[in-house]
Amino acid sequence: MPESERAEAIGPPSEKFRQLISELKRVVGEGHVLSSQVDLSVYECDGETLDIARPDLVVLPASTEEVQAVVRLANRYFVPVTPRGAGTGLSGGATTVVGGISLALTRMTKVLEIDPDNMVARVEAGVTNAAVSLAAERFGLYFAPDPSSQAASTVGGNIAENSGGPHTLKYGTTVNHVNGITVVLADGSVTTFGGRARDCLGLDLLGLFVGSEGTLGIATEAWLKLIPRPEAVETMTCYFQSVEAGGRAVSAVVAAGVIPAAMELIDRLTLRAVDDAHHMGLDRGAGSLLIIELDGSRAGIETLREVVVRCVSVEGAFGVRWAADAAERASIWKARKSAFGSLGRLAPHAYVLDGVIPRSRLAEAIREIEAIGGRHGVTIANVYHAGDGNLHPALLYHQDEQEMARVMKAGQEILELCVTLGGTLSGEHGIGIEKLHTMPILFSDADLKAMQWVKESFDPRGLCNPGKVLPAPGACGEFVPRPLLRHRLPAGS
After folding, report:
1. Which helix (H) or strand (E) holds 368?
2. What is the distance of C-alpha 192 from the center of its chain?
């Protein structure tokens, strides 16, 4: 936000603020502008609950036209706008760092069109992943991105974070499944990137926008790519004596030329928590559990099954079992996608990271993460999108200040480890607030300035989801403490 304009910003309980509320209510309706402290408290964070900041207002538009009108009012009154979907994000992307308007798109839930001939869907930003697939089901099609929160997470949020999920290994992240988007830019103008068919001419502004975390504008509608449901799906579970052995098996499967739809690895701590929650009869003595899913033609899968079993057996797999039917497959995936919730049996809070490392260095990363937890006295449960090297260490904690400080230090070291091993800071959760201070670990001062130029080109007044993705100018190369932490840390942490 430019210093020359910052002083013009308004906030409660000024007369201008009351005027803004009145005008917003005329745009979206009396009941869709929230300003009571009780209502606002619900929007003070997303699924990343470490960092909190309460908005000054919550506005719930019902159309692109209403979003446009809200953004124009925000510009007139110089109020920042932070777009929000279902709030399932895990990096603080929807948290209103500097207050202002939390723009919740959860009323925009229409599936506007399913075009089976071109295998695309046109939807509003508040539609959930699961709802898109449900609407396409009668045509034998579905929407591939499947984050664990897919029953609640919205298309707009998926676009903002370039979300993935277990099946990213074969099908890619959200950017691979979006043909076009309608965008309300920071000045209130409306434009379209791509369309029914992805536009490959000129600058790839669609590719630039997907994953920009709402800092360049607000996606209100999208053309989504649908894919045919596979002829056959086979899901296998097996156990290993250690997580490292499971990691080696994952590398062996891919090295053998097999690209499964998904390969998920969980450690003993998580395995036991899941079994306690879902009573699946899992082998509680195993060091890790590996899930491998194959899809495609029936004839092809038979051959792939043999290769997969051979690869995991070389690494000492035991208890190899293929799901008997669709119901058993669904049970396996329900348990996997509720893994983090199951960890609530072990501690009231979990700080979930999502660093990425080369798949070939998975076993090494597993050993080092265990060592980091030991050094800091932090319990770490591990879930891996193992096929594409996306790690999800869950650092478990209570509300003790000393413990919280150790968790933050351990988390920092794990992200540094990912970069050291040749990986990156995030595979699907985004940067948001959570990894803001770690960006200089990976990017140079020049890199970050180039990103800032892009941001300023789209949003010169700095009103569009400020305080996300890019460290404040002058902070490059420095460790900057997170200012919005819910938990107070001891002095010197």
Report:
1. helix 362-376
2. 24
The architecture CATH gives domain 3-104 = 2-Layer Sandwich (3.30)
Overall fold of domain 347-430: Alpha-Beta Plaits (3.30.70)
> Integer distance in angstroms from the first to the last C-alpha of the chain?
29
Please give the full DSSP string across 383-451, using - where no structure is assigned.
EEEGGGTEEEEEEEE-S-HHHHHHHHHHHHHHHHHHHHTT-BS-SSS--TTTTGGGHHHHS-HHHHHHH
pLDDT tens per residue across span 213-228? 999 999 999 999 999 9
The pLDDT value recorded for residue 22 is 97
Q: Are strands 217-225 and 120-124 parallel, antiparallel or unpaired?
A: antiparallel
Take residue 249 and report the two structure tokens written for it.
């098996």
The helix, strand and coil proportions of the chain, stated in percent and rounded to the nearest 5, come to: 40, 20, 40
Could you please state the CATH topology (level 3) that the domain comprising 111-228 is classified under.
3.30.465
Element (H, E) at 185: strand 178-185
On whether the CB atoms of residues 431 and 97 are closer than 8 A, the answer is: no
Residue 285 pLDDT > 90: yes
Among 171, 136, 147, 175, residue whose Cα is nearest residue 159: 175
Q: What's the pLDDT tens digit per position in 183-205? A: 999 999 999 999 998 876 788 99
**Where do the domains of the chain lie?**
3-104, 111-228, 232-343, 347-430
